TrEMBL record:
Chief location bin: other
GO cellular component, one term: bacterial-type flagellum basal body, rod
Pfam assignment, any one: Flg_bb_rod
Family recorded in the similarity comment: Belongs to the flagella basal body rod proteins family.
UniProt-annotated stretches for the region Disordered: 1-20
Function, in words: Structural component of flagellum, the bacterial motility apparatus. Part of the rod structure of flagellar basal body.
Lineage top rank: taxon: Bacteria
Limits of the Flagellar basal body rod protein N-terminal domain: 33-51
Primary gene name: flgB
Subcellular location: Bacterial flagellum basal body
Protein name: Flagellar basal body rod protein FlgB
Organism annotation: Roseateles aquatilis
Biological processes per GO annotation: bacterial-type flagellum-dependent cell motility
The entry's keywords: Bacterial flagellum, Cell projection, Cilium, Flagellum
Amino acid sequence: MDGIKDTRFGAATAKQAQDSDEWRAQALVFRGKRQAMLASNIANADTPNYKARDISFADVLKASSQAEELTDQDGKDRGVAREVPLIPSSTLAFAGYRQPLQDSIDGNTVEVEREQAEFARNTILYTLAMASLDDEATEFKQAAALPNAASPTRRG
């Protein structure tokens, strides 16, 4: 086997897999940070003049996509630094104030029912993102295991 190169998977496939895994991890981080923001909104439901905040996954994805489209005029990637994280160190960079459906007397814009619904929805999406990463980790562990370790020994 020495000197024989495995060409079943090209460099592009490896790069795509790495980008996919990185994106999944960043999406999980985003969901976790959004969960914290929604929890903060619920916790401050009775705080006068508190403004409910939220982050849009679509806005974060759009910003990330625009950052990755750094190519020259003929469309070829010239190795421009594209290390723009999907989630910045502060999620507040993507946060916006949520407009309430009905104004309150004390100036608080938190609508508890709406926040709870978004919290539940985000929990489901977080769980899906976690399961996706867990599946990838399981597949990696299985692929990294020795071929003979998974199959029973033959008796002859």
